Amino acid sequence: MQLVDALSNWLSIRKVHDERPNDLAAKETFEFFTEILTEDHHVNIIAVTTSGPYYEVKYEVNGIESSEKFFIDSIDALYEGIQSEPRFNEEC
User: What pTM does this model have?
Assistant: First the structure.
């Protein structure tokens, strides 16, 4: 998995996990993508911020700081899809 794809997936599931802290599947998936970032890509997340229509992920790899921007609408789509599906809104 490419780094930018791993960051995008991590950020999408992070949104779900933050909004649904009792959702065990979201927690496990968040941990999975965190592991991909740390183990496969050696990423240390520094910060996640919003700027206009973007989330910006600032991170470090081997001492070099970098960042990626993702459209908020694209990242939030997973969470919104889960929220709009009644079967996913039962107690977790």
Answer: 0.91
Q: What is the pLDDT of residues 73-82, one digit of tens each?
A: 999 999 999 9
Over 80: is that where the pLDDT of 39 sits? yes
CA nearest neighbour of 47 among 77, 7, 20, 19: 7
Domain of residue 55, residue span: 3-88
Query: How many C-beta atoms lie closer than 10 Å to residue 41's C-beta?
Result: 16
**DSSP letter string over 25-71?**
HHHHHHHHHHHIIIIIS-EEEEEEEEETTEEEEEEEETTEEEEEEEE
Q: Give CA–CA dist 33/7, Å, rounded.
A: 8
Q: Which amino acid is at 28?
A: E
In the chain, the number of structural domains is: 1
